[in-house]
């Protein structure tokens, strides 16, 4: 089956469709999150390709009321159930989304900072110790 627009399918292929979900999902859930994202995209594309034209032919311009209702439901859901993220630090965001499990213990934080400092010193020492020929 060919498209009436020669390169219309290329607009659907974007690196953000895989990169963004991989960035926002925690490491242990990345594969499942990516599957949910890609499945949702395929279902939406199928719906827009095969269902919308039939509904528009059946009830005409009144089908746009379906979209209006869906947008209103989406807006109400986002307003009442999605947490506010503006103005929070990354640590506060981890607590907001993951609860107390999202915050590392003080011992773990000390170990991380100690390893970062030692790595930084190793880089500085190795860059100072270059021999000149």
Quick structural gist:
By secondary structure, the protein is mainly α. Helix content is 67%, strand content 0%.
Description:
The mean pLDDT is 78. The protein has 133 residues and is mostly helical. The longest helix has 30 residues, at 30-59. The chain has a domain at 89-133. It contains five helices and no strands. It has helices at residues 16-24, 30-59, 64-81, 90-98, 106-128.
Morphology call: elongated
Following the backbone from N to C, one meets helices and strands in this order, namely HHHHH
Strand tally, please?
A: 0
Q: What do the pLDDT scores average to?
A: 78
Report on the biggest sheet.
none
Give the key terms.
single chain; 133 residues; mainly alpha; elongated
Give the helices and strands, then pairings.
Blueprint lengths: L15 H9 L5 H30 L4 H18 L8 H9 L7 H23 L5
Helix pairs in contact: 1-2
């Amino acid at each position: 089956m060919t498209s009436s627009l020669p390169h219309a399918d290329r607009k659907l292929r974007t690196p953000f469709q895989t990169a963004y979900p991989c960035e926002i999902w925690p490491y242990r859930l990345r594969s499942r999150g990516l599957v949910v994202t890609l499945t949702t995209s395929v279902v939406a594309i199928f719906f827009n390709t095969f269902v919308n034209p039939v509904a528009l032919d059946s009830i005409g311009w009144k089908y746009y009321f379906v979209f209006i209702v869906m947008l209103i439901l989406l807006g109400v859901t986002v307003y009442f159930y999605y947490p506010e993220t503006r103005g929070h630090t990354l640590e506060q965001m981890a607590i907001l989304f993951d609860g107390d499990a999202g915050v590392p213990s003080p011992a773990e934080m000390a170990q991380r900072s100690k390893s970062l400092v030692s790595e930084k010193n190793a880089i500085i020492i190795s860059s100072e110790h270059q021999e000149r020929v």
